[in-house]
Amino acid sequence: MAEHRSMQRAALLDAARSLLSEGGTEALTFPALAERTGLARSSVYEYFRSRAAVVEELCEVDFPVWAADVSAAMERAGTAEAKVEAYVRQQLELVGDRRHRAVVAISASELDAGAREKIRAAHGGLVAMIVEALGELGHAQPRLAAMLLQGVVDVAVRRIELGAAEEPAAIVDAAVSMALRGVRG
């Protein structure tokens, strides 16, 4: 029974990723989740109390995988500057990944304070990954520099997500260039 519930929960999360990726916030409804998984709509409520709860769990499941991808890319880099480039590029490469698309599809305002705090903490962990490299590059305030660097990444993510006039590769290259010029001080 526990294995069956676990499989159903995983199927609901997978369906939620797809719905968010395909149609954004409006697409994530309990009837749509039920239809995608073959469950009765009332059964979906046995697993999640709200759309925000679905998104919160997606963040808990998917964000560590995403952060591990960024961390692995940074570990492969040889220098502090190369780590900065890997940090930016890997995050922007993951924008098209449906795990990432699902996490950013719902605005934080739809989440309760606890869920927003978990997401903030997860992002804080991501920012913490780059602090050491920025310290190696001579920044007097590497934590502040890391937060500002993440701001560049966040804006680039939004440009890519919005389907900006620029090609995604151009946005990535511009963000990397800006980041590297900025971290050189």
Please name the defining characteristics of this protein.
9 helices, 78% helix, elongated, mainly alpha, 185 residues
What profile does the largest beta sheet have?
none
Poorly predicted regions: none
**Total beta strand runs:** 0
Radius of gyration: 18 Å
Written account of the structure:
Helix content is 78%, strand content 0%. The protein is mostly helical. The chain is elongated and about 55 Å long. The N and C termini lie far apart (58 Å). 28% of the residues are buried.
Topology:
Layout: H1 2-23, H2 30-37, H3 41-47, H4 51-76, H5 80-93, H6 98-105, H7 113-136, H8 142-161, H9 168-183
Q: How would you briefly describe this protein structure?
A:
By secondary structure, the protein is mostly helical. Helix content is 78%, strand content 0%.
